[in-house]
Structure of Alcohol dehydrogenase-like 6:
Amino acid sequence: MLSSISTPAVITCKAAVAWGAGEALVMEEVEVSPPQPMEIRIKVVATSLCRSDVTAWLSQAHIRIFPRIFGHEASGIVESVGQGVTEFEPGDHVLTLFTGECMKCKHCTSNKSNMCQVLGLERQGLMHSDHKTRFSIKGKPIFHYCAVSSFSEYTVVHSGCAVKISSTAPLDRICLLSCGVAAGLGAAWKVADISEGSTVAIFGLGTVGLSVAQGAKLRGASRIIGIDINPEKSEKAKAFGVTDFLNSSECKEPIQQVIKRITDGGADYSFECIGDTDMITTALQSCCDGWGMTVTLGVPKVKPVITAHYAFFLTGRTLRGSLFGGWKPKSDIPTLVDMYLKKEIQIDELITHDLPFEDVNKAFDLMREGNCLRCVIHMPK
Ligand SMILES: [Zn+2]
Ligand SMILES: [Zn+2]
């Protein structure tokens, strides 16, 4: 193939650059460097806005890491490959991975973890391999986000931070499996391993929470209690398997008491999908003694420390964290794509908005206003 024998050149293309925390993104011409050894350059096809993009964009804690290109839930087509890459070739359809899989480290070779020690969550806005950026504007480096940065027509990722998927899958729908939907399904199936007939409580009915509900329903949970403060979520929640919708802002007694009452002492599993550490405590209080398990999925916006009375653990409850639903991204995600193609899992119903790339700021507005589950941003053809 031509591009694998010739050296790829710098590409100049459009990217949505955040120049400062919370500042509207600006469409800029950026230079995207060729993929370095073991990296690939991708033409992004579709990228959906995830809550974590918004949280990181608003955060004052990382103002050093600007200007920056956000976006981490994406699909695309390989444009060129760097030295040493044998797994991909130009034309391959891929999903990007915000947490990668090197296949060799202690965690990648253990069946107990998906926390790769080499290509795990990148927090410095740089590439894993050389701690540099692959984007620049007139020589000025532009930082990455989660080593993905998909709000750009082209991006460079490590070959361990992308997974090859079926070329028949619609890229503008399955991009949701790159983060939110997979995180929810994995929390239900891999982390909690929900058994048939169980009771489940889910705090927060965004894309992640609804995906937990879908996972619980497919496992045959008997009761799926969904908790949210937005009454408009009720109808959609039912479509994803929620049997009881509770509006926590309207409950006259603490929500954990309601859940305990209707589940005879607490749910078998509870899931925190909001990103609120106080809610983790509530979720722990909502599950039962003996075997009750609380799984956390949300990324806390403030107050990262959790408080919980030791008695919860003394009485046999478990608190488990999860990143990307415990999936080993390269090994497991193609299976989820195939399940979608066989109509075994729902994704389309979570996409409330589709926007062209030039309207990317509108997606941020929709997410902040709470009017959106997932907005898919379609990149120029
Ligand atoms: Zn995400
Ligand atoms: Zn690894």
Q: What stands out?
A: The chain has a mean pLDDT of 96. The pocket of zinc ion (ligand 1) is lined by residues 50, 52, 72-73, 179-180 (CB under 6 Å).
